[in-house]
Specification:
single chain, 307 residues, alpha/beta, Rossmann fold, 6-stranded mixed sheet, 3-stranded antiparallel sheet, 10 helices, 23% strand, binds adenosine-5'-triphosphate, ATP hydrolysis activity, ATP binding, ATP-binding, ion transport, Iron complex transport system ATP-binding protein
Length: 307
């Protein structure tokens, strides 16, 4: 679905669960500089909504406002039964919504298990005994993110990808109905990228969590998302299913380069292929292997190509 309107809301599907968290007509600024201009989007229980768009289009700022970390200049963020989330006590909000941000300060000398335990803070009073579900939630979060074996290690001695999984586990331990993830595949190797996308899918499908996820990899978005919101210059350019939003015309326009889109032969999902300016130019491999521009099929030696 394409739209030239400033605000496009993710279309409501036949869905028994209803919306969990929504931003309505959000105007978001840093100082006097408004960077998000009237964005509306809704996250639905049991569904994954991906926010995509070029650098600086406002994805993180929108996500942060949904997480109550960036107060709108105007517009509201609502939970299904709460008109304005800013009216909620911070702990009450944290029992319902959590966010994995792009960067967090790494505490020195704290073990992985204890960092994951930070996720239980909304459930704790002054005494930890007030959180009987805590140990089970922490163990489960560590297991599904594959960090159980590093439980006793200090977080300040982990690799970027290991640390990313610890922060994700901390969010999962929080056991919320809404999970916001800002570029969660950063630092992860191929296997953990896929594990993360599978986990996101499982949380939505099996546990009815509403998930909002910022992704740069359009094929990750095509793999995991039920709905995609494409942001451009602080406004929603298009919203809808992956097939509706991931079109060659829209992506080429918004990203300013040619993006080809094919349909995957078995899954039927869109497969996006950003084209290099050099896509049609022969590579050194082509030349040595007898491909385009090789000595075998050209009259003379390969000549440099002007750029
Ligand atoms: N702390 C800040 N102070 C001032 N301006 C900011 C701040 N953070 C972001 N911005 C500006 O707000 C706009 C939107 O930024 P935002 O980080 O939300 O975009 P994004 O789509 O998440 O970008 P990226 O893909 O690069 O992470 C950009 O123009 C950015 O320069």
């Amino acid at each position: 679905m394409d739209s030239s309107e400033t605000t496009v809301e993710t279309p409501r599907r036949a869905d028994p669960h209803g919306y969990a968290l929504s931003g309505r007509d959000l105007h978001l600024a840093y100082g006097s500089n408004e960077v998000v201009h009237g964005v509306g989007l809704r996250l639905t229980r049991g569904r994954v909504t991906a926010l995509i768009g070029p650098n600086g289009s406002g994805k993180s700022t929108v996500l942060r406002s949904l997480a109550r970390l960036h107060k709108p200049d105007s517009g509201t963020v609502a939970l299904d039964d709460v008109d304005d989330v800013h009216a909620l006590h911070p702990k009450a909000f944290a029992r319902r919504v959590t966010m994995l941000s792009q960067s967090r300060p790494t505490p020195g000398g704290v073990a992985v298990r204890d960092v994951v335990g930070f996720g239980r803070h909304p459930y704790r009073g002054r005494l930890r005994s007030s959180d009987p579900d805590g140990p089970r939630a922490i163990a489960h979060a560590m297991e599904v993110t594959g960090i159980t074996e590093m439980a006793e290690r200090g977080v300040d001695e982990l690799s970027g990808g290991e640390l990313q999984r610890v922060w994700l586990a901390t969010c999962l331990a929080q056991d919320t109905e809404v999970l916001l993830l800002d570029e969660p595949t950063n630092h992860l190797d191929l296997r953990y990228q896929m594990d993360l996308l599978d986990l996101v899918r499982d949380l939505a499908t099996d546990h009815d969590v509403a998930i909002g996820i910022v992704l740069h990899d359009l094929n990750h978005a095509a793999t995991v998302a039920d709905e995609i919101v494409l942001l451009h210059r602080g406004a929603v350019r298009a919203a809808g299913t992956p097939a509706e939003v991931l079109t060659s015309d829209l992506l080429s326009e918004v990203y300013g380069i040619r993006v080809d889109v094919h349909q995957h032969p078995t899954t039927a999902r869109p497969v996006c292929e950003p084209r290099s300016r050099h896509a049609d130019r022969a590579t050194p491999h082509d030349r040595t292997a007898g491909g385009v521009g090789s000595a075998a099929n050209t009259a003379g030696p390969p000549r440099p190509v002007a750029v």
